[in-house]
Design brief:
Blueprint lengths: L1 E7 L2 E7 L11 H9 L9 E6 L6 E7 L4 E2 L3 H13 L10 E3 L2 E10 L2 E8 L22 E5 L2 E9 L3 E6 L8 H9 L9 E9 L2 E8 L3 E3 L3 H13 L6 E6 L2 E7 L5 E5 L2 E7 L8
Parallel strand pairs: 2-3, 4-6, 11-12, 13-15
Antiparallel strand pairs: 1-2, 1-18, 3-4, 4-5, 6-7, 7-8, 8-17, 9-10, 10-11, 12-13, 13-14, 15-16, 16-17
Length: 284
């Protein structure tokens, strides 16, 4: 089984192209993701990404988190998929339609000399109604709403970018106990499908600093949908304008909440290496 190790600002993935090879029959996908994503006993990654044929787009992208759960969408992964398809998959075009669990997304490739320098993705409009997050409680938006965890009260803004996000504003993200607070917020009973968590420090009208606890992966160096959710939360709470540079531990994403209501994410994608998974690890 041939794979490519890729990352978007340090949010890394094992990418497997299933157009010219088959996933081994009977191989348990969640178990394989847990094994292959293990940092010591596997290749090591935040998730396993599969590229498959699609009936409604150019390709279908599936994302299996390091814990074996499946994510609806991932902004960093879709940039990596777009770069791979342009440079290795024979899709030499400016736009590529990608089917995801959150609908069809359209990355636009910014190229130079035949290489992808950055990818701009139309991430669609945010979903703000509580039932769309999904989050338990009365109808309406969740903006600066109190949430109690282990006796502490946090004020959260909830956003769905096809996957759930819980955004909290803090004075200094470096002082946040990410490993202590992240798991409890991710699995809070108010979020029936769990949630991603973003801790946000506002720097100015156009810049924020963010640390992320990703659902199913834990702390990651970047999160594309999280950067989009952060921008929406910043605007709803009157912290920034609608164009924001989101500084993450792995680098910076530029997010625009445009007049058409859609969010546009621009950032890099990188290929690190390629290789083959031994047959004994894939039951082939």
């Amino acid at each position: 089984m041939r794979f490519y190790k890729v990352h978007g600002l340090g949010n890394d993935f094992i990418l497997v192209d299933l157009f010219n090879q088959e996933w081994p029959p009977g191989e348990d996908l969640p178990a394989a993701a847990r094994r292959l994503c293990h940092r010591q006993f596997g290749i090591g990654a935040d998730g396993l990404v599969l590229i498959q044929p699609s009936r409604q787009a150019d390709v279908h992208m599936r994302i299996i988190n390091a814990d074996g759960s499946e994510a609806e969408m991932c902004g960093n992964a879709i940039r990596c998929v777009a770069k791979y398809l342009y440079e290795r998959g024979g899709m030499h075009r400016e736009e590529i339609r990608v089917e995801t669990g959150a609908g069809v997304m359209i990355p636009r490739l910014l190229t130079e000399g035949g290489k992808v320098k950055a990818v701009r993705v139309d991430m669609g409009p945010p979903r703000l109604e509580r039932r769309e997050i999904p989050m338990i409680g009365p109808p309406g938006k969740v903006v600066n709403e109190p949430l109690v965890l282990d006796g502490q009260t946090f004020y959260i803004t909830a956003v769905s970018m096809g996957n759930p996000h819980c955004v909290l504003f803090v004075p200094d993200v470096e002082q946040v106990d990410l490993g202590g607070l992240g798991p409890g917020l991710e699995k809070h009973p108010f979020f029936p499908r769990k949630t991603n968590v973003e801790f946000v420090q506002v720097l100015n009208d156009g810049e924020v600093k963010v640390r992320v606890w990703e659902r199913g992966a834990g702390p990651t160096l970047a999160c594309g949908t999280g950067a989009c959710a952060t921008t929406v939360a910043c605007v709803l709470n009157n912290h920034t304008g609608r164009s924001v540079h989101v500084h993450l531990p792995g680098g910076t994403l530029f997010i625009e909440w445009a007049a058409d209501g859609h969010l546009y994410m621009t950032g890099p994608a990188e290929e690190v290496f390629c290789g083959e998974i031994p047959c004994e690890q894939t039951t082939c």
